[in-house]
Write a structure and sequence with these properties.
The chain is of the alpha/beta class. It contains eight helices and six strands, in the order αβααβαβααβββαα.
């Protein structure tokens, strides 16, 4: 049946309003990442690499001296009793593909290490997350463990719902891990992801698997693009030379956002390390890629 011509402008207006709402983040919960602040030792390491950025930039630009990183990755699906059928195998594989596609352009590859399922209410809500990781974590400190929890929450964000939503958190690299260290010492290392944010999930605005991409950036050592939340030129921020200074996290996918107008560049709303919706994310910068390579080599490789 042909649509009446009179309806076409109405459809166009509705579509335009929908896109405006998406850009503004209206109706979409604000992304929250629970990753802890970096240790003084890690910040010092960032600063040293930041000061060495001309050498890093040259190496990254040529892309000839960078050895690709290959990370064995284990997935653990952890559900409450009433949600035990929510995450199927296809969703996990789709998340793995999203992660691989996002990082492949930067010389980082992932190898599927395994998948297991657990039904445990206190694990799935993260009430007893430490015990969960002690029981489930596999591999070395160079191996990535991702916990897809159906009911991830925290005291600040109970139930994983509302105007703000805890979508995940991840371990930053520890500077004290040594080769051949007993794995029990780093059992808490890994990434906790709200299962509803994987492809096929139900968290509106966050179902392309980009939450895991964001969180794994922390696992490699990256900080938020709005780190320190300051426009002060003396602020170190994320200590990445090619991300503009940014003082606020992004909600939605606004065009032209500029939280530090006195500093060069607009906010990096398309960067994986901001808080934008999944559809807004497009990639990392060259310096972020170089930093992940350096951090992995320094603190995870061979440990």
């Amino acid at each position: 049946m042909r649509a009446f011509p009179i309806f076409r402008p109405v459809f166009a207006i509705l579509a335009a309003l929908f896109l405006v709402n998406i850009a503004a983040g209206q109706g979409i919960p604000k992304r929250v990442c629970g990753t802890e602040q970096p240790s003084r030792e890690l910040k010092d390491a960032h600063m040293r690499l930041h000061e060495d950025r001309p050498r890093i930039r040259g190496r990254q630009a040529s892309n000839t001296n960078t050895t690709p990183i290959s990370v064995r990755t284990f997935f653990h699906v952890v559900s409450t009793t009433d949600q035990q059928k929510y995450v199927n195998q296809s969703m996990v594989y789709a998340q793995f593909s999203a992660l691989s596609e996002a990082y492949m352009p930067y010389g980082i590859n992932f190898r599927f290490g395994g998948l297991d399922y657990s039904v445990n209410d206190s694990w799935a809500t993260d009430v007893n997350g430490a015990d969960m990781k002690t029981q489930l974590r596999q591999g070395t400190y160079a191996d990535l463990n991702i916990y897809l929890q159906t009911n991830l929450s925290s005291p600040a964000y109970p139930g994983g719902s509302g105007s703000t939503m805890l979508l995940g958190y991840c371990s930053l690299p520890a500077t004290w891990v040594t080769p051949r260290m007993n794995p029990s010492y780093f059992a808490q290392d890994g990434c906790n992801i709200l299962a509803g944010s994987v492809p096929g999930g139900n968290v509106y605005g966050y179902t392309q698997g980009k939450t895991a991409v964001h969180e794994v950036g922390h696992w490699f050592g990256l900080l938020h693009t709005f780190q320190d939340q300051s426009c002060d030129p003396a602020s170190a921020g994320d200590m990445i030379a090619d991300t503009p200074q940014q003082s606020t996290p992004t909600n939605g996918c606004p065009k032209g956002k500029d939280s530090c107008p006195a500093s060069p560049g607009l906010d990096a709303v398309n960067n994986y390390m901001d808080y934008s919706i999944d559809a807004c994310y497009t990639g990392f910068t060259a310096q972020q890629a170089a930093r992940m390579q350096s951090m992995f080599t320094m603190y995870r490789s061979g440990k």
